[in-house]
């Protein structure tokens, strides 16, 4: 993400129902303007990229020892302008390589049903269901996730003996 050398990116809050952030953040995407940053995760009702209960597990899942104290967990608010139309499953039928889809059955950030439907459209997809919320593959279901990933890789990357 390029930012202007004249001023650092800013983090600001605004009323949740305001139209201001949409136009403000779009204007900030002009060359040389720093992005308006919002927290990556926050409590429900707050201004953040993800406000589902499982989004708050991210700190513990992605930096369990809190070793990365300088990690600024923000995103450019303008990402919201593109997310509304983001539907990666729409192109699943075009994926020709083996595809592993790992879904967490209690995920509220990336709902499992659309991922399972997309996998059903991909010609060579395998679905693994994990118990837990969005970050379960990094937390309580880590061993199960790693085992599924290794099995998938061994199956599809192992040398084939004639």
Task: Report on this structure.
There is one protein chain. The protein is of the alpha/beta class. Helix content is 27%, strand content 13%. The protein has helices at 20-28, 58-62, 80-83, 112-121, 142-157; strands spanning 10-11, 36-39, 74-76, 99-104, 125-130. The longest helix is centred in the last third of the chain and has 16 residues, at 142-157. Mean pLDDT is 84; it is low at 1-19.
Percent of residues in β-strands: 5-15%
Low confidence ranges? 1-19
Q: Sheet with the most strands?
A: 3 strands, mixed
User: Alpha-carbon distance between the termini?
Assistant: 48 Å
| Count of distinct strands | 5
Order of helices and strands: EHEHEHEHEH
Mean pLDDT: 84
Layout of helices and strands, plus pairs?
Elements: E1 10-11, H1 20-28, E2 36-39, H2 58-62, E3 74-76, H3 80-83, E4 99-104, H4 112-121, E5 125-130, H5 142-157
Parallel strand pairs: 1-2, 4-5
Antiparallel strand pairs: 2-3
Keyword list:
162 residues, two-stranded parallel sheet, 13% strand, 5 helices, alpha/beta, disordered N terminus
Short structural description:
With 162 residues, this protein is of the alpha/beta class.
